[in-house]
Amino acid sequence: MQHPTHAVPEELIVGPLQIVPGEHLARADGRALMLSVRELRLLTELARRADHIVSREELFELVWGMRMRPRDRSVDVYVRKLRVKLDRALPGWRFIHTHFGFGYRLSAERHKGTTTRSQVDHTRA
Amino acid sequence: MQHPTHAVPEELIVGPLQIVPGEHLARADGRALMLSVRELRLLTELARRADHIVSREELFELVWGMRMRPRDRSVDVYVRKLRVKLDRALPGWRFIHTHFGFGYRLSAERHKGTTTRSQVDHTRA
DNA sequence: ACAGCCCGTTCACAGGCTGATCACCGGTCG
DNA sequence: CGACCGGTGATCAGCCTGTGAACGGGCTGT
Fold first, then answer.
1. Model-level pTM?
2. Separation between Cα atoms, residue A97 and residue A109, nearest integer Å
3. How far is the CA of A41 from the C1' of D11 (A)?
4. Which of residues 40-59 of B touch A (CB under 8 A)?
5. Average pLDDT taken over every residue of chain A
C-alpha cells in the first residue's frame, strides 16, 4: 500500500540524524544507514518521542505490536544493535540514553572519548 | 479521577530547573538530568514546596512513604546526591538550602565561583 | 533443490547502578 | 566548651542492563 504521491512525509530530525519512516530510511549526516526493519522501527518510535523517556513496555508495544512478556530482553538487544550502528556512523555522539528503572530516551548529545579509535575532542562547552 | 486524553501534566519550574514527575524526568536548562528514582522523587517533593522549609520527617514520609526512624540519615544522604548532580549540571546555582534544626528548602539562587569541582563554600545561607 | 546470508529471538554471564547504612568529621548553638 | 546536628566518603547486597554468542527460519542467488 503506497501513500498518495504528494502526502506530506513524516521526517524526524534528531541532531545529525534524519529519519523518514515513510521511506524506511534513516540518514546520519546525510549518509544512509543500513538498518534492519526492527532497528529502524525502534529508532523511529524513539525519535517520535525524542527527549522523553520511553519505557521498555511502551517501546515493545510500539515496535513489536504486542504486550511485552515479563522478562523479555528484546528491547535491550535492539537498543544495543542501534547503538553500535549509530556509534559507527557518528562517533562522538550519543543518542540512546538509559534511564535506570524507567526506560530509554533518544537525544543527540556529544561526548568525549570515542569507542573505536581515539578521537581527539577538545570540545569544552 | 483521570482526564480523557491529554490531561495537563504536572510541571514544576524552579529557576533553570524543570521537573516533570509524570515522565520521571527533570531538566536543567532543557538538558535531561540523570537522576535515580529516589533522587527524582526527593527533588520533586522539594519542588512542590519550593521556597518553603520542609522538615526531614516530612520529606522522608513524602519520599519513602513511611515514618522516619529516629536516626535515619537517608534524607541527608540523598540531599547531598542531589546537590552534587545539580551543581554539576548548573554550576553557579544553589538549590537546596539547609535550615539548621528545621529542614531543607528548595530555591534557585545564583552564587559565584564553583566550577566543575565542588568547591568548599563558606557562604552562609 | 541447495547453500549461504541476514535477521529476529533467546540465553547466560559480566558489569554497572541504586538504595541503605556506617563511621567520622566539621559546623552550629546554647 | 560540650552536645547536637548536618556533611561527606565508603561499603555492600541485590537488582537492572550490557553484551557476545548460539539457534532456527526465511529469502536469495545459483
1. 0.87
2. 9
3. 43
4. none
5. 88
